[in-house]
Amino acid sequence: MAPMRHTLATLALMTLFGFLAACAGGVRGEPPFAQVMGWRVAGETLGVDLRLRNVNDEAMEVQGLDVTVALGDDTPLFRHTERKAVEIAPGGFETLRLEVRAEAAGLAAFERLSAGDTGSLVYELSGTVSTAESGSLPIGRTGRIYTVPGRPGEFR
Question: Per-residue pLDDT tens for 12-68?
């Protein structure tokens, strides 16, 4: 009877370890973390440095981007759609430099910020990234925009 209990205990442990190993797989299919690193205004063009951080344990192949940004009072700033081929290493990041045509009301808000009429602007970024592995993944971020001292037309 003892050898049979030993065999059953061994099988139970092997099953448990197999189950734990299957559950311990890395993170996959999670959307990237999005963050705006900088803003530049030149006429009607707005330059946006958008950083995407891959939180997955596998490389992420970004194939496209669809982003909308509005200011805190629901003033539209821009919408941008682009096919973009970028591979982001596991746990790594890439900064995408977007050149977009900004809405007039949004540009006026940047002018007020530059003039010191307001201390900051609240923004909300929403959209999706298209990936080879997981299809369309949502991205989003809310934050504040401030002037960069000594650098007219640049914001962070």
Answer: 545 544 444 444 457 789 999 999 999 999 999 999 999 999 999 999 999 999 999
- Report which residue type is found at 133: E
| Among 134, 127, 141, 130, residue whose Cα is nearest residue 30 | 134
CA dihedral 75, 80, 86, 89 (to 10 degrees): 20
Tokens of 129: 């990234």
Position 156 pLDDT exceeds 90: yes
| CATH code of domain 33-155 | 2.60.40.1820
Identify the DSSP state of 112. Answer: H
**Domain extent listing, the chain:** 33-155
DSSP single-letter state for residue 95: E
- Asked if residue 120 lies in contact with residue 144, where contact means CB atoms within 8 angstroms, the answer is yes
